[in-house]
Amino acid sequence: MLLFLRNRAERDLDDEIRLHVQLRAQQLREEGMSEEQARTEAGRRFGNRTLLKEITRESWSWTWVEQFVRDVRIALRALRKSPSFTLVAIVSLAVALGANTAVFSFARAILLKTLPVDGARRLVLLRQHNEMFHMENCCFTRRFFDDLRKQDVGFGEAAAVATWDVNLTGQEQTGKLTAELVSGNFFAMLGVHPALGRLIDESDDAAGAAVCVISYRLWRERFGGLADVIGRKVTVDTTPFQIVGVMQRGFAGATMYEQHDLAMPAHLITALLGPSRDSAYLPWLQIIARLRPGVTRAQAEARVNAVGFAIEQSDVLQLQLQPQRDAFRLIDGSQGIDSKKDRLAKPVLLLFGLVGVVLMVACANLTSLLLVRSVERTVEAGVRLALGGSRGALMRSFLVESMVLAVAGAIGGGGLAQALTQFLLKLMGSDGEEIARQVHPDWAVFAFLGIAAILAGVLFGILPAWRASRSDPLRAIRGVDAPRGRSLGLRILVAAQIALSLALLFGAGLFVRTLRNLRAVDLGFRPENVALLRLNLSRTAYSIGRSRTDSGNDGWKQFFENLLDRARQLPGTRAASLAGISPISGAMAMVSINLPAYISPNRLLPTTYVSIVSSGYFRTLGIPLIAGRDFTSDDRASLNSQGVAIVNQEFARKFFNGDALGKTFIYNGEREPVRVVGIAGDTHYQTLREEPKTILYLPVTQWTFPQLATLQVRFTGDPSATIERLRVLVHQIDPRVPIDSITTMDTQIDQALSRERLLAFLSTLTGGIAVTLAAIGLYGVMAFSVARRTREIGIRMAIGAPRSTILRQFLAESAWMAAAGVGLGIPIALGCGRLAASLLYGLSAQDSRSAIAATTILAAIALIAAVIPAWRAARLDPMRALHWE
Amino acid sequence: MIPPGTLDVLILQTLTARAKMHGFEIAEGIRRGSQDVLRVEEGSLYPALHRMLMKGWLAAEWSKTGANHRARYYRLTAAGKKQLAKELEDYRTVARAIARILPA
Description:
The structure holds two protein chains of two kinds. By secondary structure, chain A is α+β, with helices and mostly antiparallel strands. Chain A folds into five domains: 2-60; 64-113 and 343-484, no CATH class; 120-332, no CATH class; 490-521 and 754-885, no CATH class; 540-737, no CATH class. Chain A has 29 helices and 22 strands. In chain A, helix 5 packs antiparallel against helix 17 and helix 13 packs parallel to helix 17. A three-stranded antiparallel β-sheet of chain B has the order 1-3-2. Chain B is built from four helices and three strands; from the N terminus they run αβααββα. Chain B is of the alpha+beta class. In chain B, helix 1 crosses helix 2 and helix 1 (6-17) crosses helix 4 (78-101). In chain B, strand 2 (58-64) and strand 3 form a beta hairpin. Chain B has one domain: Winged helix-like DNA-binding domain superfamily/Winged helix DNA-binding domain (Arc Repressor Mutant, subunit A, Orthogonal Bundle), CATH 1.10.10.10. The A-B interface holds A 12-13, 15-17, 19-20, 22-24, 45-49, 52, 55-56, 58-61 and B 22-24, 27, 41-44, 46-47, 50-51, 54, 62, 65, 69-72.
């Protein structure tokens, strides 16, 4: 296009000039010259046509676009001429920009995104602190919800929701999905519209027919997107339902990270659990509400506390279970009921800080490198100025060079960000799988990349460009040195880079040591070579007609006995056992215990962790039995024999002063007391970080019905072979039982450490990158300093200064920069360490070993970076130095 | 030889005489107007014309001469008129100053 315009303009100019000459020639002929003479004279009077055309072209205004293209070409050529500089610049930019972009998409998903509904930011979730069990209750009873709705606590509207995993059986297909049970006003409150049919409303919830609505996605995938889905009958677990509507597109429940493809009225919980379940008094519903405009979360929370306790008091049964006044809390609900904000916010922000620092270091590095280059190019700049180029044009062309670098860095960074994101997701383990959906590149991420690149380009380009445009052309061409001043700016930049790198290395030291400390924690059992098979019986035939108190048919007991026996006979099995909860799985259960002799400090019944295990559990996991015996299959719960229990050492110490064998107590308000028959060693229970607490072990024979159970198998040989054998075994015994997961204990522990692993890895990576950049920056500045002062060095050597002095002098210069950097960096490092204190384990945020290690590494690398140019300076040949121009 | 910088003002002034002129006519205008004292090196007219075109002091359009040749006609814009007034004022100021120094 441009070419076309240009050609036309050129032709026009030609026409103009031709006409002029023609008219002049005509005039001359009229004055009497011959044809021949007239033309020659006219041409002569006109002047140098070519030159004039050239000068005219210069003034054309859309040559600014051409000018820009030319600037880009010049920039590319200049960059190509110094490949090492260009490579370093682009790579460090790509890494810094890519890392920042990747973390940005994470931060956005975790911190900024909300449910796709109106007023999501004003949504809150209700929680209640449970003093007795030291936990936070997520859920409330139906009665509580109904009563709360009648009160005015500052909510515009409050709805209830709970999730349930179900089997959906349609005409042809069957499949598992997660459903939501919702109160009648749930969809109305969130402002969700039906894509087809209608959604659950109040009349449905008031003991209406078994209706349900499906998500848009499910409609397209399983029901072909056809309109005949309305009115279709499906079976949810074992109950027939009728589909009455499809939710709006993009809405999949009150969740950001899962898909809840089915919704049904909350009162139908009875259909899913069985009629004997007393769901009215069971806390199972989460309450999500939207604050009224003008009401703050704190205000509503105060009102809920005032009103909630009154509601609980009116419920006598509730009172018996929770005699004390537990505080209510309102937490952010903008991300729905499974928000990851609390858990991941801090690490993500920390991460952002880390990569932000790397970006700053990269920019500082590039600024110093470019400054060095700009000083080297003063001659070029001087010539361009002398030839009539404006300072503005010069500055512009240098800035274009920076922008070209920035764009190249952005392109590389974009690709890197993708790879980095996938890698980070994998490092995050199960968390990563869940948020993967939200962490994909969209317009915001690209915008971030673009803006970051432009800002970076301007940031590191402006100073060198300005510097170059201020050069005095005369002095520059003559080759007189640039201002004698020691270029303080460059040194400050290098010192700053060193400081930031130190902070990052220190952080890396903290996180790496935290990880090592956690890995070295004595678990109390031996985790190697243990396979874990987790089964979920709640949706199988074994659970039909089941309730908490009704032990019903014993088919499941047979199943487990079978499973345990045959697992023990598998090749490679050294020991096997069953447990309700596996250690370090994140799951936990607690019961209260009633000991007349023990007074707990807060007047409440003491509580303890509990784990229901089969015989052989301790042997399988390698937990020592300090006293007494293990469970046997004879320990049956019957009306004649007394129930038995095993406790851990901490339990014995705390409640019985160490002497627990033979003692009896009541747990969980059971009718019959249990007798302690064994004391086991202390182990970690739920997480790696907590101190070993009291654990009560109960025999599996006293189980009423387990929803979840884990089979532990200590094996020899190949883990994957063992896993395969276990899978086949379950299928052989009963193919209808779904396997929740099969893994090894080592893997499970590793997963529990995924956050720490992530932090250790990333802080080390960013620290390494920052140090490398700082070293390059230091090298560059020193090399430049040596190059500029070559004559001075030559003179000094010629008049007798020994080489060692030269070497020492340049090393001292670097030492000053490094020292300044370290001096600046230590307080920054310690300050940042304090911010991360809650993420550490086993060491303080002022950990001196990490600080010393970081400083040493940095000093060593700085030394290497500085010694090379200093060495070169000392090796200069004085004659050549003096002649060098 | 025309002092540098005055070419612009001459062109602008010449264009006040007639609404539209093409390059040759402007050159002739200057020559005749100065009674043949000032002879512009004719080619140097065109860079100046194009430059002033870009600056917005002139506007141009293609048309046909009397002899049916294709020619580009230039005319003064409002900005051009303002520029002319300013330049004339500057020139007069300088001329007066010089006149004060030189003997009459």
